[in-house]
Every structure is written in C-alpha cells, then in structure tokens.
Amino acid sequence: TLAMMAKYPNRGWQIFWTSQSGGEPKYILPPNEQAIGDPTFSPDGKSMAFGGLPILMGGDTSNHPPIRVLDLSTKRIEDLPDSANMFSPRWSPDGRYIATLTLDQQKLMLYGITTRSWKVVAKISASDPLWGPDGKSLYFYASVSESRPIYQIRIPNLEVRQIYRPDCGHHNCILSGISPDNRPLIRVEMRRSNIFSIDLGRN
C-alpha cells in the first residue's frame, strides 16, 4: 500500500492510499475541512503518523491539528501530546522516534515513542527532515539560508553538524532523499523565465 498527500481542485490537502499495482486513490480518513498531509508509516506498517500543514500549503494556524497516529487496523487515532504547533512528521526506521518541525520551521523536534516526551534537537531554519536508512542519523536543510546547507544530526547524542553546502548558482538546491549509504540526494530546481513576442496578425 502506498500513502500520499494530494488534493482535488478547490479542496484542501488530504491523505490517500493506493495499491502498488495501481488503481484509483482512496481517502484513508473521511475528508474534512482541515488540511492534513505528510503521512509516514511506522516500521512495522501497522500505524501511520500525519499532521496539519503550514499556511503556505493551506493550513490554518488558528485551528492547527496536532500530530496524530492512526492505527491502520482499528482506525483509532491518537494525538501526540504537546504537538499542536508542529507538522511534517517522520517516523524513524527503528520505530523509536518521530521527528517533526515547528510551524515557524525554526526548530526540529524529536518525539520518543517509549518516553512520550519531546526534545529540541536543532534551533535553526529547517525543512524536509529525512532519516538515514540505519535510523542513526537525521538530515535536513536550512531552507531560509540562501545556500540551503545540509545538516546531519547523530542519534542519540544529538550532535548537529553541517555536512554539505550546495553551489547551485541561481537555482534552488533541495534535499530530496538519502541514499542507502547515507549520502544526501539533491534535487535542483531550475529557475528559467522567457519572454515571448506573439504576432497576432491583422484582421
């Protein structure tokens, strides 16, 4: 089963699932007015965490939902404590943690599944946190910084270090994945604009 966030025209973001063999996407939960997204499965595939979205993606900060965990067999939903100002959950490969961002994207947080408590692991502009395949490192990039440097956080000692500063010129470099050997994969968004002259002819 594949989970994804998507939206119909003139509607908010919601979470859908579809079979790996294809087919029409279906709502995982009944659609509502609150925009939700960023589905992330637990390693055993039995649960899925998700959250609300920031304003730039149609979220509502005045009524922002907490990070929630859905039991896929019973459909029971549990709210993570003290997570109303967070979004973008990422479940660790070992199942011990869920990483999130604060809505202002100035803090990267870590929730301990067994301790049921939060830790601030980085106080820096952050976007798109990604776990390394071994679950021992968490990666993110500083979205507000012009060069968008990439950082690594070692787990569990929470050491934060900059590991790469992309040089993409006038284009956007975005951290989009982590390779099996823990190397960052970078997507380059080309900034191109053209001016066209159209001869409309004469009637």
Tell me about this structure.
The chain is globular and about 60 Å long. The chain has no helices and 17 strands. 0% of the residues lie in helices and 43% in strands. The mean pLDDT is 86. By secondary structure, the protein is an all-beta fold. Strand 13 (137-141) and strand 14 (150-154) form a beta hairpin.
Question: Would you summarize the structure shown here?
Answer:
With 203 residues, the protein is an all-beta fold.
Describe the protein's topology:
Elements: E1 2-6, E2 14-18, E3 26-27, E4 36-41, E5 47-52, E6 68-71, E7 77-79, E8 86-91, E9 97-102, E10 108-112, E11 117-122, E12 127-131, E13 137-141, E14 150-154, E15 159-164, E16 172-178, E17 184-189
List keywords for this structure.
203 residues; mainly beta; 4-stranded antiparallel β-sheet
Indicate the radius of gyration in whole angstroms: 19 Å
| Distance separating the two termini | 57 Å
Helix content: under 10%
Shape: globular
In the sheet with the most strands, the strands line up as 4-5-6-7
Percentage of residues in strands = 35-45%
Poorly predicted regions are none
- Total helical segments: 0
Global mean pLDDT:
86
The strand count comes to 17
Taken in chain order, the helices and strands follow as EEEEEEEEEEEEEEEEE
For the sheet with most strands, the description reads: 4 strands, antiparallel
